[in-house]
Amino acid sequence: MDITMESQSKRVYTVDEVAEIFDVNPRTIYRMLNRGDLLGIKLGNQWRIPKDYVDNMLDVNNRKVETNIPTRKLELEDLEANDELD
After folding, report:
1. 27 with 18: CB under 8 angstroms?
2. What is the DSSP-derived secondary structure letter of residue 12?
3. Alpha carbon distance 57, 38 (integer Å)
4. Helix, strand or coil, per DSSP, at residue 60
5. 62-75 burial string, b = 16+ CB within 10 Å, else e?
6. Higher-scoring residue by pLDDT: 21, 67
7. 62, 61, 54: which is closest to 21 by C-alpha?
8. 3-state helix, strand, coil in the chain (%, to 5)
9. What's the rounded Cα separation, in Å, for the pair 39 and 50?
């Protein structure tokens, strides 16, 4: 089942859908919800997570990956540049 295509028109995700999106065990999502680390709405005994919130988390994580991970090559070039100055 392709959760991402099916869920694009939805306004909320289930715990299982969020777990699949982030490639984690559903128990991890339940723990995060119960601790308050993840925004969710509990309806009866079932959780629903707003799609906009999940999309925002994905967007923030993608920006971190693109901008905050230094490469080993850059670190070596920086060291070499500092050695030339000495």
Report:
1. no
2. E
3. 10
4. helix
5. eeeeeeeeeeeeee
6. 21
7. 54
8. 65, 15, 25
9. 8
Q: Is 37 helix (H, G, I), strand (E, B) or coil?
A: coil
Residue 77 pLDDT greater than 90, yes or no: no
Residue 67 confidence (pLDDT): 47
Quote the CA–CA distance of 28 and 48 in Å, as a whole number: 15
Please give the residue range of the domain that contains residue 67: 3-85
Provide the pLDDT for residue 73: 46
Q: In total, how many domains does the chain have?
A: 1
| C-beta of residue 3 within 8 angstroms of C-beta of residue 14 | no
Looking at the chain, how many residues does it have?
A: 86
Contact 38, 32 (CB under 8 A): yes
pLDDT in tens, 11-64: 999 999 999 999 999 999 999 999 999 999 999 999 999 999 999 888 876 665
